[in-house]
């Protein structure tokens, strides 16, 4: 009896320790994100004022292309790496873990080289419909591919080893701060151009990579040094496609507008759309913060089959998020022109006011639906979330093809907003199916 009681106490202690780790990690990452957000917005303002609409559009298009191309060897491979590192460390399979890390780096480097060659061939054989400078910017931007891919691997390995704050520190703090500082300096000395802005990104990512490598070496398990690598390449390759698919769908939903405008050579419209996106992100900030807080509570209530608590969490969190977002969204909807003139400059007022108003409406509707995606994910229904993302992407692509050629940035804003609303409606359907109550503020 005594042994049984002691064992139960040990289990409870371990459970509390695990909960403490989750809370500490979640709050730590949330704090880093909150610190990085104002700097990111300020950097966007600096770039908008320094580059002008056309220059900002060229820069935004290059970064969107790079962010999409890096998905298979960055976020996609990284998610698989996080899962496998955690499993292999838990089971003390150090030889396989060392082999996985080495193989992932090989894939990332080889994939980066292939993608860089692809960009070079594409620029040479089929120049962009914009200026020739866009092709040169893409070639310079391609230098980001290996750095971003390796950064994602560092982040994923650290997360798999349960060092979640150290995993986010290089990107959220080092990269964000350095890019902000360099952008200010470039603007002050009068040499801020799309080319120097991309070089600033390269320098920022490079420093983040160096810091990330140092952090990883500090916490890397000592057992890895004494083991010869063992490879399970076929198993890893078989597991990779779902992670890549998830990363591609999630990222394309946010980048489809910029990509379409850039491919059509609408650099000024792309700049206007990027400005509108930067402003509209403030509308969804409250929901992002609330999601960081309520995630563990959703899991706990779902495990306890406490449906009443889940309903209260859904309703109260949606009300709180909407109450904060509404005062931010209304000025963007009804006074978008003067706001853009004040913050980003007069040259953006006429071309970005309607995209900002449309995106603000879309994000406000998004907030009004509440944390539908988080509720499904934290309760083990990730597949429902993925289906909703795929449906939304298909709608966004269809609207993009239909609206952007004739409406430019306004068409991009409509396409993205319609896709966002479609995503929420799809998830709301699955939400009601799983939880038997509506995700509503009422």
Automatic annotation (TrEMBL):
<dbReference type="Pfam" id="PF01943">
    <property type="entry name" value="Polysacc_synt"/>
</dbReference>
<keyword id="KW-1133">Transmembrane helix</keyword>
<feature type="transmembrane region" description="Helical">
    <location>
        <begin position="410"/>
        <end position="432"/>
    </location>
</feature>
<feature type="transmembrane region" description="Helical">
    <location>
        <begin position="243"/>
        <end position="266"/>
    </location>
</feature>
<feature type="transmembrane region" description="Helical">
    <location>
        <begin position="385"/>
        <end position="404"/>
    </location>
</feature>
<feature type="transmembrane region" description="Helical">
    <location>
        <begin position="198"/>
        <end position="216"/>
    </location>
</feature>
<feature type="transmembrane region" description="Helical">
    <location>
        <begin position="356"/>
        <end position="378"/>
    </location>
</feature>
<dbReference type="GO" id="GO:0005886">
    <property type="term" value="C:plasma membrane"/>
</dbReference>
<feature type="transmembrane region" description="Helical">
    <location>
        <begin position="59"/>
        <end position="81"/>
    </location>
</feature>
<keyword id="KW-0812">Transmembrane</keyword>
<protein>
    <submittedName>
        <fullName>Flippase</fullName>
    </submittedName>
</protein>
<feature type="transmembrane region" description="Helical">
    <location>
        <begin position="137"/>
        <end position="153"/>
    </location>
</feature>
<feature type="transmembrane region" description="Helical">
    <location>
        <begin position="278"/>
        <end position="299"/>
    </location>
</feature>
<dbReference type="InterPro" id="IPR002797">
    <property type="entry name" value="Polysacc_synth"/>
</dbReference>
<dbReference type="InterPro" id="IPR050833">
    <property type="entry name" value="Poly_Biosynth_Transport"/>
</dbReference>
<feature type="transmembrane region" description="Helical">
    <location>
        <begin position="21"/>
        <end position="47"/>
    </location>
</feature>
<keyword id="KW-0472">Membrane</keyword>
<feature type="transmembrane region" description="Helical">
    <location>
        <begin position="173"/>
        <end position="192"/>
    </location>
</feature>
<keyword id="KW-1003">Cell membrane</keyword>
<feature type="transmembrane region" description="Helical">
    <location>
        <begin position="320"/>
        <end position="344"/>
    </location>
</feature>
<feature type="transmembrane region" description="Helical">
    <location>
        <begin position="107"/>
        <end position="125"/>
    </location>
</feature>
